[in-house]
Amino acid sequence: MRRIFQYDGALNWYPGHMVKGTRHLIQSLPDVHLLIEVRDARVPFASRNDVLQSQLTKVKRQLVVLNKSDLYASKYESDIRARIKSEEGDSKAVAFACAKDNKSVSNLLRTVLHLASHDATSVPVRKVMITGIPNVGKSTILNALQRTASRDMRRADAAAATPS
Predict the structure, then answer these.
(1) DSSP for the chain?
(2) pLDDT at res. 116
(3) In whole angstroms, what is the distance from residue 153 CA to residue 163 CA?
(4) Residue 36, CB half-sphere, CA atoms under 13 Å: how many?
(5) pTM
(6) What is the pLDDT of residues 110-163, one digit of tens each?
(7) 38, 132 contact by CB (below 8 A)
(8) Do residues 144 and 137 make contact, with C-beta atoms less than 8 angstroms apart?
């Protein structure tokens, strides 16, 4: 039985497709008005992408969304907010969200709309980028925001169509 495994190459967990995606993301940052970084609320610092952190300063408006907030101990929320602000800068907004909870997603949507429209110039379209490591819920958050925005638009349309 072999007792030693000798490997002289460098070990790297960061696969090539992630390197390519990171390069493309960094090139796109100057055009982004709001960057949403999704993390897992249960592991808010272990679920950030440290490779990107130094590059993210190129985006003026940033929102850290701590997803899966229904699965963590909320008593640590203020400590987590304070640590993010102290380690990553005061300019980052922090939101706790649960993509399965309509109220939570509605609050998140209001925050996103506020941040995306803040300092709006004559640019009619705002670019928002969502980023995060695998399995933190980026797609789930995006789908929940879209579902909530569509629902709110239907309610507004119904209210406008109702004669008074």
Answers:
(1) --------SPP--S-HHHHHHHHHHHHHGGG-SEEEEEEETTSTTTTS-HHHHTTGGGSSEEEEEEE-GGGS-GGGHHHHHHHHHHHH-TTEEEEE--TT-HHHHHHHHHHHHHHHHTT--S-SS--EEEE-STTS-HHHHHHHHHHHHHHHHHHHHHHHHS--
(2) 84
(3) 18
(4) 27
(5) 0.81
(6) 999 888 886 656 556 678 999 998 899 999 999 999 999 888 777 766 666 666
(7) yes
(8) no
Give CA–CA dist 67/38, Å, rounded: 7
Say how far apart CA 64 and CA 85 lie, in whole Å.
10
* 29 and 58 Cβ atoms separated by less than 8 Å: yes
Over residues 37-78, the pLDDT tens digits come to 999 999 999 999 887 887 887 787 899 999 999 998 889 999
Which residue has tokens 């399995």? 135
Q: Which structure tokens are listed for 17?
A: 């497709």
Average pLDDT in the 6-18 region? 74
pLDDT of 87 higher than 80:
yes
Laid out side by side, the sheet with 92-96 consists of 92-96, 61-67, 34-40, 128-131
Residues in the chain, overall count: 164
